[in-house]
């Protein structure tokens, strides 16, 4: 295994290591071996490359799980210095119309390679779920027409937004959210490479509650927090920089909502929300998690969750936050009446 010399592997060329660069790009894996997680998928792709049998592919799954990184790293492994000439990367969200796609693909697939007589080219269609249905239907033909010397790789979040006819032309690989332990080692390397001081508790929060299986989010939070707190990243600072409610604040709010009078609970929630700058939807998500995991009579739980869902819906219309905060307290105080029935 290539587990040795991890920090070496993270060294990048000079222009890539400028401070201005987002860490998600600075630490984007450039070879398949650098990717953490999805070992089976990567193993299969490596074998297909080695046997020169790469099929059309559909990579799908939630954000920040390494789909784009996997296919670009595969292409770099496959083509080496010819990467630029052999790969066409199209972002379907920019060019939604099929004409653009068709023309670019046609031009790319038709150009002769001067240095090699054989070799299959690769077209990467990122964010393919943003393509219109018409464009997807047209793509069927395009894929068929150029199959002789071109492979297509569709990348998206939602496989069900890709028409079945395209899905059936592709080998599908699902990228699951990354488990905290899969990200841990790589995060450790990056923390060392950037000279960050950070304790275990902060790392656990970043990998768990805050990152939620999305490596891009993990790196963005880390970078933002390290700008605000260059000396040491603490557990609290991670939450405060990202505006995520601190678990201790959520606990305080929760206890107050369940026990205090309307006026006291209203004051507690409003105070914390205001001084910390919490957004109501973030609080609602955390409170809903709490309600779900607390032992309550089923009807009480059901009533509260329904109220919280209504509140979240209303909050998305940017109505008055003050009124919605009151409604949050009312939901709890009102539900308490049910409990004593
Ligand atoms: N499996 C992984 N191994 C190592 N780094 C990863 C992995 N997944 C994500 N990353 C990191 O997160 C960043 C974003 O990953 P990537 O662009 O591949 O995500 P994606 O799955 O294509 O997400 P989206 O669906 O939002 O496009 C990468 O630059 C890399 O730094
Ligand atoms: Mg992507």
Describe this structure as you would to a colleague:
- The chain is of the alpha/beta class and 341 residues long.
- 57% of the residues lie in helices and 8% in strands.
- Helix 13 runs antiparallel to helix 14 (262-276).
- The longest helix is centred in the C-terminal third of the chain and has 19 residues, at 321-339.
- The model is unreliable at 1-18 (pLDDT under 50).
- The structure holds adenosine-5'-triphosphate (ATP) and magnesium ion (MG).
- Adenosine-5'-triphosphate is lined by residues 24, 27-29, 35-38, 63-69, 157, 175, 186, 215-216, 219.
- Residues 67-68, 126, 155 line the site of magnesium ion (MG).
Present the secondary structure layout.
Blueprint: H1 6-10, H2 23-26, H3 39-50, E1 57-60, H4 67-79, H5 83-86, E2 87-91, H6 98-110, E3 121-126, H7 133-146, E4 150-156, H8 164-167, E5 171-174, H9 180-193, H10 200-210, H11 215-228, H12 235-242, H13 247-259, H14 262-276, H15 280-293, H16 298-315, H17 321-339
Helix pairs in contact: 6-7, 9-10, 10-12, 11-12, 13-14, 14-17, 15-16, 16-17
The chain binds adenosine-5'-triphosphate and magnesium ion.
Subcellular location: Nucleus
GO molecular function: ATP binding; ATP hydrolysis activity; DNA binding; DNA clamp loader activity
Domain AAA+ ATPase: 53-181
N to C succession of SSEs: HHHEHHEHEHEHEHHHHHHHHH
Instruction: Predict the CATH topology of the largest domain.
Output: Rossmann fold
CATH architecture of the largest domain: 3-Layer(aba) Sandwich
Q: What composes the largest sheet?
A: 5 strands, parallel
Total of helices? 17
Count of DSSP strands? 5
Tell me the fraction of residues in β-strands, as a range.
5-15%
């Amino acid at each position: 295994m290539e587990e040795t010399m991890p920090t070496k592997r993270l060294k990048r060329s000079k222009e890539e290591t400028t401070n201005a660069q987002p860490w998600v790009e600075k630490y984007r894996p450039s070879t398949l071996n650098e990717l953490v997680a999805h070992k089976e998928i990567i193993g299969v792709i490596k074998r297909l490359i080695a046997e020169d049998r790469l099929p059309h592919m559909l990579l799908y799954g939630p954000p920040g799980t390494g789909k784009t990184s996997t296919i670009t790293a595969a292409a770099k492994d496959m083509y080496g210095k010819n990467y630029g000439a052999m790969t066409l990367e199209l972002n379907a969200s920019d060019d939604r119309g099929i004409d653009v796609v068709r023309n670019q693909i046609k031009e790319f697939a038709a150009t002769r390679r001067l240095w090699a007589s054989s070799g299959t080219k690769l077209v990467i269609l990122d964010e393919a779920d943003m393509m219109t249905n018409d464009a997807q239907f047209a793509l069927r033909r395009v894929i068929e027409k150029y199959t002789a010397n071109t492979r297509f790789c569709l990348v998206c979040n939602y496989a069900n937004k890709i028409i079945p006819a395209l899905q059936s032309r592709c080998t599908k690989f699902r990228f699951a959210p990354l488990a905290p332990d899969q990200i841990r080692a790589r995060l450790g390397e990056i923390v060392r490479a950037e000279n960050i001081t950070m304790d275990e508790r902060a790392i656990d929060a970043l990998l768990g509650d805050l990152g939620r299986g999305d490596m891009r989010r993990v790196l963005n939070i880390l970078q933002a927090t390290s700008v605000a707190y260059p000396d040491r990243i603490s557990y609290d600072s991670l939450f405060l920089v990202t505006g995520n409610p601190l678990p201790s604040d959520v606990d305080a709010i929760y206890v107050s909502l369940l026990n205090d009078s309307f006026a006291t609970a209203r004051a507690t929630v409003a105070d914390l929300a205001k001084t910390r700058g919490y957004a109501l939807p973030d609080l609602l998500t955390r409170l809903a998690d709490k309600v779900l995991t607390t032992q309550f009579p089923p009807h009480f739980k059901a009533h509260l969750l329904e109220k919280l869902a209504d509140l979240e819906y209303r909050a998305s219309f940017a109505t008055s936050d003050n009124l919605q905060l009151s409604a949050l307290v009312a939901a709890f105080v009102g539900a308490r009446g049910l409990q004593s029935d």
